[in-house]
């Protein structure tokens, strides 16, 4: 029987996508690589735990959950989280950023300075610019200022991000335009916290990093994994947690967060996509120890 692996999610290391596995192993993902795996027969998806600790109940979690945590572990994970706004005394400096995901889709957010651009890669930001740098609460107040004064959201649904990746403007200048315009409007506001240092607009473009140039439109999206089902496709692009795979049924997008909590085993090249897939009807306008699973 093939060795089963537990996926701990997609990571961005050295500017490229890497699938991480429990135990510390990693599988580098390069364009054109064959991604082929299936869920172990009879498998049950179990909670991944919280903050580095295993779930004491090994609770079963729904196949469609992108968090793969039971209710108690999800609560514990949120209890000490900048993203959930449950930390007010973090002494680290924080960046405020503007991120662009496609026409009409710009958001404001914050990330610890020490993380660099990792947060932007994890979210699938097509391009971004820093806006300011300062203490956590000053960064939070600036984020609120942009939401209130300029109606800039702090979240963009993943479905909307995916829908436009194959239809992005061709030039980096076109992609940067909305970020540059919003950066100028934000800097013109007078209510900035004094402790936040404003930063110049320098747009970083991730189209090449994500492999989005000439990306074909997606025909479907994986909705969940299931015991005995599998995925087999050639990697065309990756953005945030998503893999865009060329398959026998067209380009299929796999959110790798759906892989966590399952026992995953290799599959043969002849096996097709047998996981549940939702058809994309339209897009929003604007045996021995293995060194790696694949």
Fold and architecture overview:
19% of the residues lie in helices and 29% in strands. The protein has six helices and 15 strands. A hairpin with a 2-residue loop joins strand 12 and strand 13. It is globular.
Notable traits:
five-stranded antiparallel sheet, about 290 residues, alpha+beta, single chain, about 20% helix, 6 helices, ten-stranded mixed sheet
Strand order of the largest sheet: 3-2-1-14-4-11-12-13-10-15
Count of strand segments: 15
Q: Would you tell me the structural class of the helices and strands?
A: alpha+beta
- How many H/I helices? 6
- Biggest sheet overview: 10 strands, mixed
Q: Can you tell me the overall shape?
A: globular
Low-confidence stretches: 283-291
The share of residues in extended strands comes to: 25-35%
Q: What Rg, in angstroms, do the CA atoms define?
A: 20 Å
Portion of residues within helices: 10-25%
Cα distance spanning the termini: 16 Å
Helix and strand sequence: EEEEHEEHEHHHEEHEEEEEE
Spell out the blueprint of helices and strands.
Blueprint: E1 5-13, E2 16-21, E3 26-28, E4 34-39, H1 71-78, E5 94-102, E6 105-112, H2 118-123, E7 127-134, H3 136-150, H4 158-164, H5 172-187, E8 197-198, E9 204-205, H6 207-210, E10 220-222, E11 230-239, E12 242-247, E13 250-255, E14 263-266, E15 277-279
In short:
19% of the residues lie in helices and 29% in strands. With 294 residues, it is an alpha+beta fold.
